[in-house]
Request: fold
Amino acid sequence: MVCQSAMFTASFEAMYSAFSRMHMQRTWEAIINAPLSLDDCTVRGVDVAGTKSVISVLAILAVIMVLGYGHSWLALWVLPLGFVIGLTFGAFGLVM
Reply:
């Protein structure tokens, strides 16, 4: 459930939000007029997807700990894993 949340959050952030910023809001055009490149915009999009997936993983992990299903503090090691999953699926989402 934790990894699924990271995957869905990152995928949605990369696909829908990036599309919205690119076509409807035209944020990327404004950023490219600054001394930045398209690569900077895409790397930022992947970073945001990874960060948002960590936030969703943290929320689910907090519920798991409160309900008593997380029996060890080693479960906190899922946060870096959630960031890596977020980066991976965020990059896949931007490719799509």
